[in-house]
Specification:
alpha/beta, five-stranded antiparallel β-sheet, globular, 632 residues, Rossmann fold, seven-stranded mixed β-sheet
């Protein structure tokens, strides 16, 4: 693509200013001043944030930066669960509600900090019974239930490295993640529940571990009370049976700040998802600081992030950040349109949600069904609205602000990634909000929009979004593939390249345009083009395949596949259906193409690389740009 590009900034001057009381009461009262203080003493800024948390041993040095490798809070000792649980249990929060779980049919379970602490300790002791020790990898493939959160915290408690896999992935995708992480234990459930239907998980795990030699045991949570799950005793053990007879106390493992906390797989452009490695100390500080300041979270708030914990948003802003702050967190096994389009608004009304964090896909879906659904419910408890996962277009921003926030709640549209671990760009609470613009780099982050050489673009122009300096919650490597980690820092000189295109506004606000690389963001899920293409090519009929994201007003993008068939196979509607089903069974329903077009050949460079942007340009009827490298 071009070095940079001009963008029409019509409507840039439109903005909303929240009631002054928001700014007066915010943790970050003056963005400009806070950002200047950060620039004046960057390490001192992060050291001040770290002092709000408890450490077994303080650091010798805040940052050790050997480009492109960072160590934060060097030689500090900690356990993140001590900050999520113990320190609250030891003070006035012991009987505060930590977690409220709401099921699809309205079932409710409540955990105080003291109760959650004991459940985590018991399950941690159960894992120890299975021989899990510090450094072992544990795969968690579960529905959105409290036991999933408990399993994550229990792993962190004993120093095991968890790898949470989203419950919508299929056998092959799960098998790949188990094998790459060399998981010793898999934790799952018999079923997940979605739109009133039970979807089996255990049977997927049974297939996924057939060729997974590292797995020693599978822990199974049984949810079907009337039909208890049948366990294969030689390999499987019941979740609650594992916790029988174990103490409700478990001493936290002493972790170095740079010890790995978790591996989370994100889509890559080479076909194999990348195992992003986050470590204990910097990630804890980054998620604590952003949860507190970006959401302006108070002790009286009831906070609901609708993300699944199988994604980074669930890790950072359902579990670790909010519990470090001591929040009351809502976890809901709910979808926006079941049993009707009022499901989210009913939860907000029933539980008195004050901070609501969801995805633009959900917001656009709500817009389509109209104001009548939110208008049926009392949403007056809300005081902060958030958005995450993909760019929030101006129309969706304005509807969210008006129909849900009633023209009074600040909207924090956040940009960040699995790799960043924490929020990086937003409009801080109390600052003027511009529809379509995520905002500015938060205090603690140095972001910019640049050309391919790393030169900042002029205001009103677009380019590549980069981060110029290290931050505490940054990824440390890609598991077993450090070369892929270095690519982030070597694509554009002396910068972390996010892979997103962005526009720099005249006032410094940043608008995120979308991906510059081979990742499709669909309904908040990051789908690697190469992973879908690999699934298609694994079908006996397919010789080659290319996929693109095709803009969609609801989901942001749909997946369209272009397929070349092997000799002996003919295009047909039946074959299209078979290929879509094949992708579903290989990766999962989130990666299913919406369209398949059969081709005789695909546009490629002379070196043989498929030029997806040419396919996308043709699909959208726009200029494909430079095609000088295109094969004749």
């Amino acid at each position: 693509m071009a070095e940079s590009f001009e963008v029409s900034m019509a409507g840039e001057e439109k903005y909303y200013i929240p009631d002054p009381s928001y700014k007066e009461q915010a943790w970050t009262k003056d963005y400009g001043r806070a950002y200047k203080e950060f620039l004046a003493d960057k390490e001192g800024f992060w050291e001040r944030q770290a002092h709000h948390l408890e450490w077994f041993k303080k650091w010798d040095k805040v940052l050790e930066w050997n480009y492109p490798y960072a160590k934060w809070f060097v030689n500090a000792k900690l356990n993140i669960t001590y900050n999520c649980l113990d320190r609250h249990v030891a003070n006035h929060r012991r009987n505060k509600v930590a977690l409220i779980w709401r099921g699809e049919e309205g079932e409710e379970r409540i955990f105080t900090y003291k109760k959650l602490y004991h459940e985590v300790c018991r399950f941690a002791n159960g894992l120890k019974k299975l021989g899990v020790v510090k450094g072992d990898r544990v795969c968690i493939y579960m529905p959105l239930v409290p036991e999933q959160v408990i399993a994550m915290l229990a792993c962190a408690r004993i120093g095991a490295v968890h790898s949470v896999v989203f419950g919508g992935f299929g056998v092959n995708a799960l098998n790949m993640r188990i094998n790459d992480a060399e998981a010793k234990i898999v934790i799952t459930a018999d079923v997940t529940i979605r739109r009133g239907k039970t979807i089996p998980l255990k049977t997927i795990v049974e297939e996924a571990i057939i060729n997974a030699p590292s797995v020693e045991k599978v822990v199974v949570l049984s949810r079907e009370v009337d039909q208890p799950v049948e366990l294969h005793k030689e390999m499987e053990i019941d979740y609650y049976e594992l916790m029988e007879g174990v103490p409700a106390e478990c001493k936290p493992e002493v972790m170095d700040a740079e010890d790995p906390l978790f591996i989370l797989y994100t889509s890559g452009s080479t076909g194999t998802p990348k195992g992003i490695v986050h470590t204990c100390g910097g990630y804890m500080v980054g998620t604590y600081y952003t949860t507190l300041n970006v959401f302006d979270l108070k002790d009286t708030d009831v906070y609901w992030c609708t993300a699944d914990t199988g994604w980074i948003t669930g890790h950072s802003y359902v579990v670790y950040g909010p519990f470090c702050v001591g929040a009351t967190v809502v976890l809901a096994e709910a979808v926006p349109d079941y049993p009707d389009a009022g499901s989210y608004w009913k939860i907000i009304q029933d539980l008195g949600i004050t901070i609501f964090y969801t995805a633009p896909t959900a917001i656009r879906m709500f817009m389509r069904v109209g104001d009548e659904w939110p208008d049926k419910y009392d949403l007056s408890s809300l005081r902060i609205l958030g958005s995450v996962g993909e760019p929030l277009n101006p129309e969706a921003f304005e509807w969210y602000y008006r129909a849900i926030g009633k023209d009074r709640c600040p909207v924090v549209d956040t940009w960040w990634q699995t790799e960043t671990g924490m929020q990086m760009i937003t409009t801080m609470v109390g600052e003027p909000m511009r529809p379509g613009f995520a905002g500015k780099a938060i205090p603690g982050v140095v972001a910019d929009v640049v050309d391919k050489q790393g030169t900042p673009v002029a205001p009103g122009n677009g380019g590549f979004l980069v981060i110029r300096e290290p931050w505490p919650a940054m990824l440390r490597t890609v598991y077993k593939n450090d070369e892929r980690y270095r690519t982030y820092w070597h694509t554009i000189p002396d910068c972390y390249t996010a892979g997103d295109l962005a526009v720099k506004g005249k006032d410094g606000n940043i608008m995120i345009i979308g991906r510059a690389d081979d990742i499709i963001i669909m309904a908040g899920h990051n789908i690697g083009t190469a992973e879908v293409e690999s699934a298609l090519v694994s079908h006996q009929a397919v010789a080659e395949a290319a996929v693109i994201g095709k803009p969609d007003p609801l989901k942001g993008n749909l997946i369209k596949a272009f397929v070349i068939l092997r000799v002996g196979f003919q295009p047909s509607e039946k074959l299209k259906s078979d290929l879509i089903y094949h992708v579903r069974m290989t990766i999962g329903p989130i990666a299913m193409p919406s369209e398949i077009e059969f081709m005789d050949k695909l546009p490629k460079t002379r070196s043989g690389k498929i030029m997806r942007r040419v396919l996308k340009a043709k699909e959208m009827g726009i200029d494909p740009g430079d095609v000088s490298t295109l094969e004749e």
